[in-house]
Design goal:
The chain is α/β, with parallel strands linked by helices. 40% of the residues lie in helices and 17% in strands.
Length: 278
């Protein structure tokens, strides 16, 4: 596959998931990879994507929701292998991996198992430390507009920024019986994922950005855990729910870019033994 040329835009398909790539002026050593959640696609990263490109950073994102992947054995491991295939095919190493919700578990799992590929991790709305992931709205018998509207009420603190197009994109995920089955299976897998063990295994910098009002994956346990990490930091965005890059993009992007700048400026001598260099 290979990394496209300078300032190139490229897209493709990796084991059933669409991806998009942009090489910035700072080159392939500044890659930030954005992973969406289970039933919201890469469009949740639109504002972040623009900010990364304006900063001259190279950016890669999955465009499809993770429910589009038929992860027959283990939704977290199978989805992470797809991401590995994409990164290996593009020749990307030392990427800063950002993930929301289930995508955050993929980022965490990749950093745990392939530290040479991951330079730093940004987590948002990840499950795994609280008692469980419970949307509290049941499983729909039909993919109605009303069901997705109730889902929006759970995911967002302020739904005023949610458009009809966002609702319809999400409704189409639930309208597909195969994807609906993938959602149910992935939620079960998220409850079982050993997040504490994965976090303990990381040596790279870790940034956690949570919506302070996230009722799906509450921030308290993640903030507590980050406080005990040598290279971890936690930020809660007020008046914000489960998808801060969409609900509060300006503050999310400010925190992200500050972290990315610091990571890229880090000298090799500052990194723990075994950490990757670009």
């Amino acid at each position: 596959m290979g990394i496209p040329g300078q300032d190139a835009l490229a897209s493709g398909l990796a084991v059933g998931l669409r991806w998009e790539w942009a090489l910035g002026s700072r080159g392939a050593g500044s890659v930030v990879t954005c992973i969406p959640g289970l039933f919201a696609g890469g469009w949740i990263w639109d504002d972040t994507w623009s900010s990364l490109r304006a900063e001259g950073l190279s950016a890669l994102r999955l465009r499809d929701p993770l429910a589009a992947l038929d992860a027959a054995r283990d939704p977290v491991a199978d989805s992470r292998r797809v991401l590995e295939t994409l990164l290996d095919g593009l020749g990307v190493t030392g990427s800063i991996i950002c993930g929301n919700s289930l995508g955050a578990l993929l980022a965490l799992d990749l950093a745990r198992l392939r530290p040479g590929v991951v330079r730093a991790v940004v987590l948002s709305g990840a499950p795994g430390l609280e008692d469980g992931v419970n949307l509290g709205i049941g499983t729909p018998r039909a993919a109605t507009h009303e069901f997705v509207t109730r889902l929006v009420d759970v995911l967002f603190y302020d739904r005023s920024g949610v458009t009809d197009d966002m609702i319809e994109r999400t409704r189409t995920v639930f309208a597909d019986k195969g994807r609906l089955f993938n959602v149910v299976r992935a939620l079960r897998a998220a409850r079982r994922y050993p997040a504490r063990a994965a976090l303990a295994a990381l040596e790279c910098p870790v940034l956690m950005i949570w919506g302070a009002n996230d009722g799906v994956t509450p921030p308290a346990e993640w903030e507590r855990y980050a406080g005990g990490m040598a290279r971890g930091e936690f930020h809660a965005i007020p008046d914000c729910g489960h998808v801060p890059m969409l609900e509060q993009p300006d503050e999310f992007n400010r925190l992200l870019l500050d972290f990315v700048r610091r990571v890229l400026e880090e000298r090799p001598a500052d990194r723990p033994s075994g950490a990757p260099s670009s």
